[in-house]
Amino acid sequence: MKIHKRYISAFAAVLLSTAAFAQVPAPAAKQSKPVLLKGATLHVGNGTVVENAAVGFDNGKITYAGPQAGANSLSGYEVVDVTGQHIYPGLIQPNSSLGLNEVESVRATIDWREIGDFNPNVRSVVAYNTDSDIIPTVRANGVLMTQLTPIGGTIAGSSSVVQLDAWNWEDAIVKADEGIHLNWPAMLIPTGDKERDERLNRMKENREKTLRDLSQLLSDAAVFKAAKADKENLKLSSMAGLFDSSKKLYIHANYGKEIIESVNFAKQHGVKNMVIVGAGDALAVADFLKANNIPVIYSGVHALPSRAEEDVWQPYKTPYLLHKAGIQFALDYDLSIHGTRNLPFIAGTAAAFGLDKEQALASVTLNAAKILGIDKQAGSVEVGKDATIVVSSGDLLDMRTNNVTYAFIQGRKVNLDDKQQYLYKKFDNKYKEQKKAPAGATTSAGK
Amino acid sequence: MKKILTIAACLAFGAGSAMAQETFPRNGVYDERPGLVALTNATIHTDYKTTLNNATLLIRNGKVEAVGTNVKVPAGAVVVDAKGKHIYPAFVDMFSTYGLPEVKRESRGWGAAPQMESKKEGAYNWNQAIRPETNAVELFKANSKQADELRKQGFGTVLAIHRDGIARGTAALVTLADKRENEVIVLDKAAGALSFDKGSSTQDYPASLMGSIALLRQTYLDAQWNNQNPGREQNISLKAFTDANRFPQIFEANSKLDVLRADKVGDEFRTQYIIKTNGDEYQMLNEIKATNAPLIVSVNYPDAYNVEDPYDARRVSLDAMKHWEMAPANAAMLQKAGITFAFTASDLKDKKDFLPNVRKAVKYGLPEEEALKALTVTPAKLLKAENVVGSLDAGKLANFIVTSGNLFADDNLILENWVQGDRYKITEVPSDYRGVYTLKIGNNTSKKLKIAGTPDKPELSVIGADTVKGKISFNGNLVTLSFTDSKKSNETIRLSGWLADKNLQGEGQLPDASTVKWSATFSEAMTQQDKKDAAKKAEEVELGKMIYPFRAYGQTELPKQETVLIKNATVWTNEKEGKLENTDVLIKNGKIAKVGKNLSESGAKVIDGTGKHVTPGIIDEHSHIALNGVNEGTQAVTAEVRMADVVNSDDVNIYRQLAGGVTTSQLLHGSANPVGGQSAIIKLRWGKSPQDLMVEGADGFIKFALGENVKQSNWGNTQTIRFPQSRMGVEQVYVDAFTRAKEYEQAWKNYNKLSKKQQAKTAAPRRDLELETLVEILNGKRHITCHSYVQSEINMMMKVADEMGFKINTFTHILEGYKVADKMKEHGVGGSTFSDWWAYKMEVKDAIPQNAGIMHNLGVVTAINSDDAEMARRLNQEAAKSVKYAGVSEEDALKMVTLNPAKLLHLDDRMGSLKAGKDADVVLWNEHPLSIYARPEKTFVDGIAYFDVERDAKMQQEMEQERMRLIQKMLNAKAGGARTQNPTIKKASVLHCEDVHHHEEESYLAY
């Protein structure tokens, strides 16, 4: 890149000091020595809080998590004093296009949608861009893992869980191809207008056809392995895991009757593990979900009520009410990709409207890990799990106090810088220099 | 609110001239008849309030010759004995499309390339929706099928309106006689017709309600100019517009709010419209009354909803349920309020519903006399045709109906409808055969046969060993019966016969194919009690309470202004005192009376604020709630459109945002074009009318926009026609627009300098509302909020403003403000931005969450806005992000959503801080207001607690009870045989800056 000499002479010092951050920061190196964080309040992620706690980790795994007194015997650890701060499990964002799309309005940057209605064989992880400018800004607020979720069509493809500090998608994998995403065809409601309802009838016919095709696909997939056909079928074999519990079926549905219809449909076709995603009406069908042991990824916390008559704060209160109803759930931030960094505040809102703070935390950590099937290695700060940990000087779930001072992913200390901070420093320095410089010596043009 | 202008008497009907066909040659011999008919012994309602018993109506040649109790029947008259029957003037429907071609709306489809110009060829108006050159009389073709439908409901005369476009030309008053057009036209031009609906126009402009309103305004001005400057521009449409204005003006409105909007436009041009409504005007009775507009009222009542499935029933909104219950009471409520109105059948899909629905209105409290008035004299008067139709006096048209009894009784039948003296038989009085008979079939044992029900719908039961129901029908004096032998049997006995004296007899066929003779001998008449039971049980009219606004969270009574003393709270004054602990705030007469320690005030409602926080109300500088439309993006410059024209006071988001502490919002035009429309600044006074929401005396603002939206970058491949398509072009749009504005201003200055004498000789410049608005900007009378993202365009805009001699007031969004904050400071412009949005399109890839902080640090007045109905409820949290990302102090952060937007809106002398004398727009929070755990407990606007968390809980409970009551009522109505409809989807639209079109599919989705 050719740089203008004039430019260099004016701001050489600034540029040289910050140029290194113009790119996404380099992923952290493998943990080389054991680390002990001490003095903080530990929020385990499973509802437990430990005051004056310590957390130790080595080789990327947590070796100690508990009262500080119990860590005295540990030796050879690099001690990091985080007295007065808070330790959390790294937050997990399920159901996300982070890294599959850089600029939402630019088609060339969209990799979350494939053509065709049934794409169970399509794998999101291979399109994951670890060099997305957005990812570091998300990490900086404490979100350290995400589920790469394809969108579009009826079966959009399969998702994988990744951690957010890697050189490439392969390194990023926490769990590959863990589930298949089904967008349940929406139930259609007449509008009362004759002309429009003719359109509606056509749409209804399409819906019925889709459901027939889906039924056929699931039926064929369920027996494909046993049939030992001499020709491979990528679609059918990619779905085998749905019938032996090794893959989950994520059903994206919002309307209560859609939720019931879709779960029964999948069950009838032999699908073992289902998760409802979106789940706007989950409360209305809580008994059904509970009876069928279906967990929920609830999307719409920062949303308007779906009906004028509802409690104005209904979406804010829903997580608490789901909890009260005994439904296993996680929360996701679904308003935009760049907004993923607000995931902690979605949980904060749930806490502001009835949910216990530690339960709110669990809804973006351990519960998410359980639903995504990664709770053996992630989701809480417990011995034996990956050291994927966030330290914040204040309450992580409140934007007023959220201030991430350290983040570790599998024991690696993550660089918390990002493009936005680079730009901030660049222009903040510009104005500081202007203040120092005599009046009239600024870069202001047109004078 | 203007008096109807009296139209010159020359328009009045010239008797005998309009309706002959003397000029037509005949094929064959002439067959003119005297047409002299006398209807005698009738109860004649000569007009809505006059009834003559045992009277005679004499008609000759299609006109009333005489009416009265002493009318002598001349020799040669055909006498029709109408004993026991009633005669009423035939009804007049002044809002009909009778005999006119159907208006075909050409759907151009989502994503079609723009159509900038009219497709109508010829010397017509520039806009395809302005078609005042249409004369319904030229399109009119008598249509016997439609006429028959309307005559059956009692109509004799209708106003035929071609319902196409915003200016629709003239309408014709015609009778429903089955005659040649030349004979049925009463007034060829009886009224002018207008609406906000562009109809069949395929031209892009106007694409919004506020665009339609602006176009109508400009058309009035253009027509005046064209009229005053003949020959400057030959324009058939504008000439016709002026011509059509001579007649009563009928405006079709689609909602109560459109009634208010239409009336406002009428007032501006000194015209009192007669407004066709859709039947919901009872919901804003006071405001509707204040318009003084006569109304044309629809009797299109919604069917009950199918609410058996509790899950689906949730889709039926409270207002839809309440409207189902109250719609039939609309007319009665209008009448009680003293509003003049006429009825129309135009909205009824099935015209057969008309008379039953009018009767329902009577049952719901409308006096019969008033109902008849609304069917006859009122429409006649409004059309200046009261000398021709609407009552039965000598000289008027012989348009009347003959009924079996009182018109408004449920069992009344229209027997005949006479139009222009021609008799159209509708139905006969059915004979009453009800009673008990002894039935004898062949040699079988006798059974009892009972005929019950009503005379026109008799019901049959046959009583032998058991009682079976059967079918019976009469045709003249012929009768047909069918029934089974016993309840268990599925074999039917069929009998056919005739009436012989009071008995029935005839032949029939048994299930075994044998024929038999049968007879049914009359034994006793139906008892009075049975007759009473047969008549439909009178519907009990019980209505729920009115609520304001008429939808969820509306209240029977609006909260009142109170004297309130909040004690011992943490008070964020936003004044030099800063944040005060353990402090009291006194609210009185809608103002902040005092802020201090240990305050007391007798009679004040005291609120313990211990542990709580008090802040000024949140002000959203960039909002699109409470609007019926956002973008008129069809032209690069649409300064003429006004958001104040389309404020929707029913939007529940007003209430939801009060629950987020918002008290004032600037409702902006969208960002689809470089110069958008004029803003409306409202206070969230939930329950008040659009007019009462407006902030009194606020400065005028307007939306400008730059960048990708304006150049239509993300609108698909077809949107490549409208200038500009690049940031280069955007600059030129401004330079050009303001250059024209300056020339326009100069032209007016030159003209105004002339003496009166000179002015009389000189043509005045054409008033142009678009340029007038730009002149306001040049003169510092209107202020700009400019949607902007990248530094190049921000800089460009400031340079254009400097060159042209005006200031940009606010850059909104301004995500790269941090790159040019120094220049912004120099220009004196403020910034109103998002806290942390970025990466959703190319022009925001360099956006940073420290933007607000940097602008603020450089001394730019900085606000955080929403542009989103949901986020607006959390603006306090968005402000908190400036503390997090850029280290702004907490007090300064709060100012970004209170005092600073007040400054940007020039309202900081009244709002934005807690200081004695300022408006009592105050929020009481349960927690530190920048915390995610904070939520308002009370939100005051003008000292009125429009949101109160405790009242909210109560309202939710009451709302649920009201829904349950209505659901039960609907279930009962359905069980009683009422028509029903399935719950449908009616989604409230949540609008954003960039919204131009709606995706239709979305509206079908259940969730």
UniProtKB/TrEMBL annotation, chain A:
Record's protein name: Amidohydrolase family protein
SUPFAM superfamilies: Composite domain of metallo-dependent hydrolases, Metallo-dependent hydrolases
Domain Amidohydrolase-related, residue spans: 245-413
InterPro entries (alphabetical): Amidohydro-rel, Metal-dep_hydrolase_composite, Metal_Hydrolase, Metallo-dep_Hydrolase
Keywords carried by this UniProt record: Hydrolase, Signal
One Pfam family of this chain: Amidohydro_1
Residue stretches in coiled coil: none
Signal peptide: 1-22
GO function terms (MF aspect): hydrolase activity, acting on carbon-nitrogen (but not peptide) bonds
Automatic annotation (TrEMBL), chain B:
The Amidohydrolase-related domain, residue ranges: 332-406, 854-932
SUPFAM superfamilies, A to Z: Composite domain of metallo-dependent hydrolases, Metallo-dependent hydrolases
InterPro entries, A to Z: Amidohydro-rel, Metal-dep_hydrolase_composite, Metal_Hydrolase, Metallo-dep_Hydrolase
One Pfam family this sequence matches: Amidohydro_1
The keyword Hydrolase is annotated on this UniProt entry: yes
A single MF term (Gene Ontology): hydrolase activity, acting on carbon-nitrogen (but not peptide) bonds
Secretion signal, residue range per the UniProt entry: 1-20
Keyword terms of this UniProt record: Hydrolase, Signal
The protein's name in its UniProt record: Amidohydrolase family protein
UniProt source species: Pontibacter burrus
